[in-house]
Specification:
The protein is an alpha/beta fold and 238 residues long. It is built from eight helices and eleven strands. The two termini are 25 Å apart.
């Protein structure tokens, strides 16, 4: 499979290593120094584009790929407010698109565990729930996209929680997300239910970027010959 990497930072390089190990070919690498190379002709050489940039550029990058009829896998976070626009465009153009806040296989299993635990805890109102996420200091957005996904999953099961906030809160209608930036943390997410009697916690800790990169390559392999909008639940058959 021929892959275009849109974004060639630490994640792009990790994806490249795994893709090459799986006998794929990188036919295009786009980063800040060579943005002029991001053209329709150059992208047409790729079967799939994998996009990992920042919230400032992700929307336009994904939009181009869809308009130019290249299946695109995006792991950029901080731009979820424009996802509906991209999904609408994808449907109009009969394109192929996967976005997730986290491509790690372990994290996607953690998402399913989080939903199950929240449903079990819903009747037990003595427990106060909170989300904590820790990442390296170069992470551009806070809270992390993964933490937001976890919080939204919890709120679906706990109707008393009306919104998440990125700080400690004693408001019963708010779900606290605490963000910490500590080097060299690759990413830790902690869900805690606390009561006067005991605490219940589930934790996912990434040791490096390999899990995220491997999941992104799996998603690219999955979407290559498909049309539509998919998620990692589809990729992993969850």
């Amino acid at each position: 499979m021929n892959i275009a990497l849109i974004g060639y930072g630490k994640m792009g390089k990790a994806i490249e290593e795994i893709a090459l190990n799986r006998n794929h070919k990188i036919v295009l690498k786009i980063d800040e120094p060579n943005l002029n190379d991001f053209t329709r002709d150059n992208l047409s050489k790729a079967d799939v584009a994998i996009e990992f940039t920042g919230p400032h550029s992700a929307y336009e990058n994904v939009k181009r790929a869809i308009e130019w009829q290249t299946p695109v896998v995006s792991g950029s976070t901080g731009w979820a407010d424009r996802l509906d626009e991209i999904k609408k465009l994808c449907k109009e153009k009969n394109g192929s698109f996967i976005w997730t806040s986290n491509f790690s296989i372990g994290v996607n299993l953690f998402f399913e565990l989080n939903k199950k635990l929240a449903s079990l805890m819903a009747p037990h109102t003595d427990y106060k729930v909170s989300v904590e996420e820790t990442h390296h200091t170069s992470k551009k957005d806070a809270p992390s996209g993964t933490a937001i996904t976890l919080a939204e999953q919890i709120m679906e099961q706990l109707p008393s929680k009306k919104k998440w906030v990125n700080n400690e809160s004693n408001n019963a209608g708010e779900l606290s997300i605490i963000s910490k930036r500590i080097d060299p943390a690759a990413g830790t997410h902690n869900i805690r239910y606390s009561s006067p009697i005991d605490d219940i916690e589930i934790i996912h800790t990434a040791h490096n970027r390999a899990g995220f990169a491997a999941g992104a390559v799996l998603a690219a392999e999955y979407i290559r010959d498909k049309k539509g909008i998919f998620t990692m639940k589809d990729v992993l058959n969850l």
